[in-house]
Amino acid sequence: MDWKYKHFHQERVFPAPRDLVFEAARTFMAESLGWQVTNTPDGFTAQGYSFSHRAIANLQIQSAAGGASSESGTRVAIELLVERTGWRGFMLFDVGGYYNIQIRKWLDGVQWSLHQKLTGSHDEFTNPLVLADNKAAACIFNGCLVFIVSMFALYFLITFICAVVGLITGNLYLWGRGGTLAIHGIWARILSALILMFGAFLGWRIKRKS
Fold first, then answer.
1. Whose CA, among 55, 114, 135, 153, lies 20 to 30 Å from 201?
2. Domain limits at 183?
């Protein structure tokens, strides 16, 4: 398991030559998304921030296999690496599939940018990022994510405090959905020590990878 980055991957084939798809993808990531773009031998790399987490998107743009190269199209593969640590907390998993949804929007954006280049138009109102910018829904979604992360953080903090108390006093109380679990004596101290060791291990791994 990569403790520094969470990995995501999606790809799509576009019915257009590689040079046009490359320019469309590069334009969208640099101008519409505002990320820093660096060319690579098989595509480019884009770096920026997504939902308070630093991210790196590696785009591989290659001609898709087919009977006739002019008709086979171009495959765009996006590998997204998102740093788990951000100012909103540590991301253990992708809540609500947020980043997978973002990659789909980016691929839609490449299609939109390609259409703009093929038709010579520039209609920002049809940009997938603009269409998806529903502020009310975004606020509710972000609020739910912050609430979930805060509840997890509060639960782990309470468990950590209970483990410290359990190690000192020999009385460990763990709160859960089924009620409060009370453990006393030597087993309380052993379990408390294991909880604290696990927390210290996670903290060490996060600090080491950051």
1. 55
2. 141-209
